[in-house]
Amino acid sequence: MSAALGSVVTLALLSTSTALFQIPTLPGTKVNPQLRRLGDSQHGNELSFTIQVSEDRSFTWAEDPSYRPSFLAIKGLNVRLTDEPGKATMPGADGPRPHLSSGCCKVELLSPGSFTAMNGEVELDLDQDSACWEIIQREGAPAGQLLIGVDLKSKAERNSASLPPGRLFLNVAMWDPVVLTEHRQKLAVAEKAHREISQMKDKALEAMRTTGNPIMKALKFREACQAMEKLDLSPHRYLKEEVPEDGDEVLTNGFHIVKTGTLWQKNNAFLPRSEHQLLGTCSVKL
Asked: Residue 24's pLDDT is what?
């Protein structure tokens, strides 16, 4: 009798311990239902990439039009996305949340890409066996991210601009057509509201400057501050950053691929933020 009672108590304690130490589900880690559709849609797709790498990683044309840093322009990196399982490491499939990845698949390098150096045309020294691709998308994220990873075996250099050897990643966004249309509509509404609030702020500041009444100055300053607060809380800024401009994407196999993306390096795909460095930009065409 006592043995049976002991067994019951032990089971109860185990159940309680399991409940107490159960790892909670982190927000934003559920698998997106359209992730498999995104991955399957790209099997057999052929893409051509152009890469731009500047010697000055923080350079933008708007800062100083007269400044001309050295650029490494790589053209003709052509790939085919296969459905064969890949063996190289990828940030999603081999990272802390692999369920947010479509899975690691092989990339067939149709041509490695080349650039013009002082001694003529030079091809990138890429490792074919390391070339893989995946699509990452969180639950609730409007767009997926197409990642193509490949190992650069030796440094690519033109003047002062260079690509270091290591694991490189090409990253472009992918959108469902319906979701993209919805977000463009949201952006249009947000832009209209942004313009109206900006006009209210400017009028309040102008009235504050021109009036000689200290009470009116305080009231108009308050109106300007309220308008600034509305601008800060507006979704306009993040929508402007994440929604591509009309025409800056191509429709392929039922999904939009954004034409411009980024090139970055991460030599340890297992560690979330290890050696993650933005190297340049890329553009893609079919």
From this structure: 38
Of 82, 139, 144, the C-alpha closest to 107 is 82
CA distance 255 to 242: 16
Count the Cβ atoms, other than its own, within 10 Å of residue 268.
Answer: 15
Give the tens place of pLDDT for each residue, 47-72: 999 999 886 655 555 556 665 667 88
Q: What parts of the chain have a pLDDT lower than 50?
A: 1-2, 4-5, 7-28, 269-270
Q: 32-53 b/e with 16+ CB inside 10 Å = b?
A: beebebbbebbeebebbbbbbb
Tracing tokens 């990439």 back to the chain, one arrives at 49
For residue 231, the tally of other CB atoms under 10 A from its CB is 16
Compute the distance between CA of residue 282 and CA of residue 73 in angstroms, rounded to an integer.
10
CA-CA distance, 194 to 201, in Å (whole number)? 11
What is the pLDDT at residue 148? 95
